Amino acid sequence: MNMDLLQSGIGMTSERTRERLVNGLRREGIRDERVLEVMRTIPRHLFVEEALASRAYENTALPIGMGQTISQPYIVARMTEALLDGGELDRVLEVGTGSGYQTAVLAPLVRRIYTVERIGALLEQARARFRLLRLRNIHPRHADGSIGLPEFAPYDGIIVTAAPEGIPRQLVEQLRPGARMVLPIGGAEGQALVRVTRTARGYDTELLEPVNFVPLLGGVDS
Ligand code: SAH
Q1: Three-class secondary structure of residue 59 per DSSP
Q2: Residue 221 domain flag
Q3: Is residue 119 in a domain?
Q4: What distance in angstroms lies between residue 16's CA and the mean position of ligand 1's atoms?
Q5: Pair 77, 39: CB distance under 8 Å
């Protein structure tokens, strides 16, 4: 885990504030120490608008502009933990870069991460944050991630941070056999966080918990 790259963020907000966030995550059942350590280190205040920076270490989702939101820290931790499940991942795909916070949390825990965002303006801001934090194993792309990113498939893990109505077949096909995808599924009537594991014949699904994400849309916007 490349923690030294992240130390630059420490000191920008008090360590005590971050420690409180991590203690809250522990209480909510996050167990993977690597995930907790990364969440303690990544400066979440750099991923929200300046006016909201003082609220960055609360365990809530916050607006990031363009009608999108940065996910709640607990959900980021839960999805990261479910994706890694104690192992090490080589090549990961993320659909829905948004602020780039989830990407930045995953980056030190995997070898290489491709991240796809359909809104160009959000992707540019996320790129600037990755540069600032020197997270060099992140490969951002401005594209429609609902069809995945076939040119770099197969992936050892896929994480989706916007909700499709059902499990996108093209994404399952881009998983290596045995690899996992963590994603929210559903619409206005309710969503669930699901973990899909690709098998030799098809895939298995596990229901994790109820969630509330923005919808996965098609096409790209500037
Ligand atoms: N993980 C993000 C959460 C962002 S919200 C964070 O930590 O900040 C979900 C994001 O998914 C939004 O930015 C939205 O624009 C994006 N999105 C929705 N549909 C998409 C698609 N088909 N391809 C790529 N990104 C998509």
Answers
A1: coil
A2: no
A3: yes
A4: 30
A5: yes
